[in-house]
Design goal:
Strand content: 5-15%
Structural class: alpha+beta
Helix content: 40-55%
Number of strands: 4
Largest sheet: 4 strands, antiparallel
Shape: globular
Strand order of the largest sheet: 1-2-3-4
Length: 139
């Protein structure tokens, strides 16, 4: 599948979850950098189709059944973006990536509040653009 079609599929899957009452959180998947979605304590990545457990410290991590099936993500504090390792990026780009994740969170809040189809489309497009930009930073 081409990157554009993959991105479209991820955005569509994320939009479907939002319509079902899920919320996009300010954490990115540590594998693909897609936004994570949460509902009733369950956190998932729509692209990797994996469930994650958010913890505040290693001591809170559940026992691992299989390392692939249930990888722990990062702390749930609003400004902690450690679910994605920005250390491999130059400091200026790491800051840019963190800002992009914050913008995705801001757009998610706007998306939650609107019911205007044009605004939903515009916000979704902006989120997709930010996700594509994050991917390009990490590749």
């Amino acid at each position: 599948m081409s990157p554009s079609k993959e991105s479209d599929a991820s955005v569509a899957a994320g939009a479907d979850l939002l319509l079902k009452g899920w919320k996009m959180i300010n954490k990115a998947c540590p594998v693909c950098v897609e936004p994570l979605y949460e509902k009733d304590g369950k956190v998932v990545c729509v692209k990797c189709k994996k469930e994650y457990v958010l913890v505040d410290s290693k001591s809170e991590m559940p026992p691992t059944k299989t390392s692939e099936a249930q990888q722990p993500a990062a702390s749930s504090s609003p400004n902690n973006f450690s679910s994605y390792d920005f250390s491999s990026l130059p400091p200026a780009l790491a800051d840019t990536a963190k800002i992009m994740l914050e913008k995705i969170t801001d757009l998610n809040a706007k998306l939650k509040e609107t019911s205007d189809p044009k605004e939903i489309s515009s916000i979704s497009s902006s989120i997709r653009s930010l996700i594509d930009s994050l991917r390009s930073l990490s590749s």
